Amino acid sequence: MVREIKKDVYGIIINDWDRRLFDELIPLPDGTTYNAYLIKDRKNVLIDTSDPRKTDKFISILKKISEGRIDYVVSNHSEQDHAGGIPAVLNAFPEAKVITGEKGAILLNKLLLIPDESIIKVKNEEEINIGSRTLKFFYTPWVHWPETIITYSGQDRVLFTCDLFGSHLSTSSFYSTDNRKVYDAAKRYYAEIMMPFRSHIKKHLDLLAGLEFDIVAPSHGPIHNSPDFIINAYKDWVSDSVKNEVVIPYVSMHGSVEKMVDYFIDELTKRDITVKPFNLTVTDIGELAGALVDAATVVLGTPAVLGGPHPSAVYATYLFKVLRPKTRNISVIGSFGWGSNMLKVITEMLPKDIEIIEPVIVNGYPQKDDFIALTKLADDIVNKHKELQ
Ligand code: FEO
């Protein structure tokens, strides 16, 4: 899909409707898109490219709308889904130079074998005049990777943000008109890609607050032509406040843990806590990640396997650790047959600054005293959440 989003500024959205996995890790229930932008001026500037799997289609569109001339290719981010088309662009437009930051230049060289002589390195806040407009480049590290930059066209009032403010959402809508759908996809995307770098994203939002723009043009998902929607959502997600929610990733082998989880959900809901359970045997980890964005507490449910936690629970704990949500409290509920060190394994994997609420680990099928302990755990969580108000 191609549209002129401002005079002589074209959005090129390549839909990848059928892609179901990103980085061989992240589920894509709604596919994704790779967005690039072309500014036609005295110099024609392409901002980002496309995933290599869509290169042929991308180059054919680009040849048509550029009328055969690309002077600069801005690489906001060196990951292959945006930079992977650069070699093909340089092949099709041999006069083009790649503009990127210091770290981007190193990564483009290492990952895509783009030679130094094809790269123009810009410094933070450096400007390049391309005719009737001047593009400004801001270093915004850890918008996924450490080399990321954002490109700003003040004359057009457009911010080209690459991964930031994106969503893995393949849709026929060029702009983010279905706010609920885009919100859900963008939140999930934030959780998977941006949440580990929350403190950096916070600083970047402060930087962007000083710029005037009416379009946010990311490189995944629909373009934001009412950008307050996505900026405000991000402000909420990166804020330090947490919600009165408990996320329960769990796995049950023979029913003991499931019985505990069922009882525990009832106890929490009776106390007006929003509960989000995820059976790890069927869970889409993107949904689990999205739920972690603002929950105050996580309670992991696991049986013992070979003396330790169930491997699915280990995976969930590892994801929790690397995604670095702002969760304040964590607890574990579980069941073992003849012995286990599952608590030790789990607690050793957790971030050091998280508060662990007294776990409930039972021997075999849960009995009366075990349910009393689960009730107490629900009360403990209520009290912890009150302290956070
Ligand atoms: Fe969409 Fe980090 O690449």
Describe this entry's structure for a reader:
- By secondary structure, the chain is an alpha/beta fold.
- The chain has helices at 55-66, 80-83, 86-92, 102-112, 179-194, 198-209, 228-238, 256-270, 285-291, 311-323, 342-349, 368-387, and strands spanning 2-6, 9-16, 21-22, 26-27, 32-39, 45-47, 72-74, 97-100, 119-121, 127-129, 134-139, 149-153, 158-162, 215-218, 243-250, 274-279, 295-305, 308-309, 329-336, 355-356, 360-363.
- The strands form 4 sheets. Strands 1-2-5-6-7-8-9 form a 7-stranded mixed β-sheet. Strands 15, 16, 17, 18, 19, 20 and 21 form a 7-stranded mixed β-sheet that branches. A 5-stranded mixed β-sheet has the order 10-11-12-13-14, with no helix packed on it.
- The mean pLDDT is 97.
- Helices cover 35% and strands 26% of the residues.
- The chain starts with a strand and ends with a helix.
- It contains 12 helices and 21 strands.
- Strand 17 (295-305) and strand 18 (308-309) form a beta hairpin.
- It has 2 domains: 2-238, 4-Layer Sandwich (Metallo-beta-lactamase, Chain A); 246-383, 3-Layer(aba) Sandwich (Rossmann fold), CATH 3.40.50.360.
- The structure holds MU-OXO-diiron (FEO).
- Residues 77, 79, 81-82, 144, 163, 220 line the site of MU-OXO-diiron.
- Computed Rg: 24 Å
- Distance, first to last CA: 46 Å
- % residues in beta strands: 25-35%
Which segments are poorly predicted (pLDDT under 50) over 5 or more consecutive residues? none
The CATH C-level class name of the largest domain: Alpha Beta
Count of structural domains: 2
Mean pLDDT: 97
Give the neighbour order of strands across the main sheet: 1-2-5-6-7-8-9
Q: What's the CATH architecture of the largest domain?
A: 4-Layer Sandwich
